[in-house]
Amino acid sequence: MAKRILIVEDEAKAAQSLQQRLQAAGYEVTLAADGVNGWQHAQRQPPDLAVVDLMMPDMDGWRFIQRLKGDERLKGIPVIILSALVDVEGPPRSFEQGDYFLAKPVIFDHLLKKIQELLGSTRERPRAPGPA
Fold first, then answer.
1. What digits encode the pLDDT tens for the residues 70-123?
2. Following DSSP, what letter does each residue of 76-117 receive, concatenated?
3. Host domain of residue 86
4. Distance in angstroms (rounded) separating the CA atoms of residues 109 and 74
5. How many structural domains compose the chain?
6. What's the CA gap between 73 and 105, in Å, rounded?
7. Is 78 contained in some domain?
8. How far is CA 127 from the centre of its chain?
């Protein structure tokens, strides 16, 4: 069974690109355009991991993460924070609310590697043909 990832991102093109690439890697992906929609998805069907942008309308990423981590049923869900709010010294200490931080623009291979570390592989590797 594929691991479920919730992407909470208001930039539709960025979200759809991540969705397509993560689905190709074997994950089941749900998109949410803001924290309110993300919170509704998380309550209905808790994801195995959330990828959350910080700057969004309505409920921003900070508030979404606070709600997630404050809910007894959902608090164990790993969160990868995505943000362009970073300087050369790295993310501020407040980014510690998440389990990992990636600066935008996101390098997909780095994101995929961290997801795999947090969740483990989602599918078996194809076996090399061997003797019968």
1. 999 999 999 999 888 765 444 444 445 678 888 888 999 999 999 999 998 644
2. TS-EEEEES--BTTBS-GGGGGSSEEEESSP-HHHHHHHHHH
3. 26-90+97-107+115-120
4. 27
5. 1
6. 31
7. yes
8. 29
CB 29 within 8 A of CB 3: no
3-19: average pLDDT: 96
CATH number at residue 53: 3.40.50.2300
Cα dist. 25→48, 112, 130 in Å? 15, 8, 25
Predicted structure pTM score: 0.84
What distances in angstroms separate CA 65 from CA 5, 8, 109, 126, one per listed residue?
15, 10, 24, 36
Q: Examine residue 131 and say whether the peptide bond preceding it is cis (omega within 30 degrees of 0).
A: no
**pLDDT for the residue numbered 125:** 38
Please check whether residue 18 lies inside any domain of the structure. Answer: no
